[in-house]
Amino acid sequence: MINATRHTDVWDNCLKIIQQIIEPQKFETWFRPIRPVSLEESVLTVEVPSDFFREYLDSAFLDVLKMTLRRVIGTDAKLVYMVRPVHNEPEMVYPASSGNAPVNPPVSVSSFRPGTSPGPFVYPGLQKVNINPRLNPAYCFANLIEGECNKMGVTAGINISGAPGKTPFNPLFIFGGPGLGKTHLAQAIGIAIKEKFPELQVLYVTGNEFKTQYVDATTVRNKLTDFMAFYQKIDVLIVDDIQDLMGQGSQNAFFNIFNHLHQSGKQLVFTSDRSPADLQNFEERLLSRFKWGLSVQLDRPDYETRLTMLRARAFREGVRITEDVLEFLATRVASNFRELEGTLISLIAHATLAHKDITVELAGSIVGNIVGEQQQEITIDRVEDVVCDYFKITRDMLLSKSRKRQIVQARQIAMYMSRNLIPSCSLSTIGAELGGKDHATVLHACTTVSDLVATDKTFKQYVADINGLLVPVIR
Is 115 left (phi over 0), alpha (psi -120 to 50) or beta? Predict the structure, then answer.
């Protein structure tokens, strides 16, 4: 690991490499003004003259910077910009961009025959076509917050990106409610694969788009052969919202494409708002193939994951937000990542346009407008009531010293929920309210619940059900 005091030497070494790559005039204009600030582990922070300067570096020289930093610091190197303050304003800190949109190499599609009408993906006179992977660089793994809610999916995705088509996770079927990060995870897999295997053809498409393309190929252009040939060229196919792939004809075409790609060792990634077993109006032979690999459910993020996401997004926006505001948002907006992120962006926009400080009071007004008025505050008493009702036990039984398995699990879940949903409560307070336990007992209970959620499907359902009973009261 590089010593943090060596940031000047590290940047000097970077400049020596960059100077050999770009034109002298551009080097003097865009790299001489940069001043190294710090080096912490593999993160180099540099100071730039203005926000425009930062944006231009990211757009024009990002590839050069990334390559150079990896050579000097290592593969884990990251770059952070600090924009010099104007007057008495605090400096703004931004991470470097996630990179440019991935591109595929040209691919030959030979189904077009002279004298016939070209299909939707084949053009007369061209030997090769460029397939746009349609991946958003912002949806990379670096910008994806990992928590208990998505840990298995992230782990599987990272494994897939290192060996697409060669792991047991093929297909990978990601399912869960809206706003839980299904699209982000699926695209992150595609982006990571393109970084490691740029020669592969990666394509992201929605279920509805696939259906529309199929109808266009069969009824409008009458070139189903070209349609099938196009999809059979794909090495990594990502289909988002596959529950929208309705219709016998489109499902039959997709079935044949699935078989061809899977048998050829290509990687398949699907997302859906429900599990394969709950999909309606799908052919049984297609449903059985969805279950061949790994099905992963994404759950609602817990408090710590929500707070981590808010910190990361505020950092990406270059905005300083106090911890009490972030904790307030993480407590009040508990439904999903999308709603939480939307609330944060709305708060930043309101504060910027109105020239106001970002305070808990301002955050409260934004939350009220976006997620609705809070109907009932979550307290330890309410957690106890919900847990007791769910397990059909009395409060005295929950708070007793009983070691019966059901009572112990109910008590541990109550401690876990209290910690996640009431961040203002200390471990000692939670323990005192739940049978006079100490903070170490509460911490052990939370760890036990987290472990069981990851390994025991029945227990995981207990926690999901109770969370669903509690969370709606703060939406």
Answer: left
- What amino acid occupies position 58? D
Condensed to tens digits (0 to 9), the pLDDT of residues 346-377 reads: 888 888 777 888 888 888 888 876 665 444 56
**Using CA atoms, how far apart are residues 413 and 69, in angstroms rounded to an integer?**
46
pLDDT in tens, 265-308: 999 999 998 888 888 888 899 999 999 999 999 988 888 899 99
Task: Answer whether 0.70 is exceeded by the pTM.
Answer: no
The pLDDT score that the predictor gives to residue 85 is 63
